């Protein structure tokens, strides 16, 4: 079962991930929401749309913008709506 972890803490775990461009997108209900803080960071993907970010906070350690998601993806990426992906040292295995 794919698991996302950072600093030894499980952030998300699910058998229902969607893989896009090599990244696992986890369902929102599989992510530990209490470890996430909102971020003002945004980015644009030509085919997925606007990505928004969240910062991980684990036992006082912060990993800024380590989580991203597409709240309203373009039609070509509709399968990742309501899902979160990880980077910046988050291990997905």
From TrEMBL:
Annotated DUF427 domain residues: 4-88
Gene3D superfamilies referenced in this protein's UniProt entry, alphabetically: Domain of unknown function (DUF427)
Protein name: DUF427 domain-containing protein
Record InterPro entries: DUF427, DUF427_sf
Domain of life: Bacteria
């Amino acid at each position: 079962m794919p698991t996302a972890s950072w600093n030894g803490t499980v952030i998300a775990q699910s058998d229902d991930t969607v893989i896009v461009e090599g990244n696992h997108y986890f369902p929102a209900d599989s992510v530990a929401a209490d470890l996430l803080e909102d971020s003002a960071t945004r980015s644009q993907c030509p085919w997925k749309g606007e990505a928004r970010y969240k910062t991980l906070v684990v036992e006082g350690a912060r990993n800024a913008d380590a989580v991203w998601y597409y709240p309203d993806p373009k039609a070509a990426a509709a399968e990742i709506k309501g899902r979160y992906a990880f980077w910046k040292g988050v291990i997905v295995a």
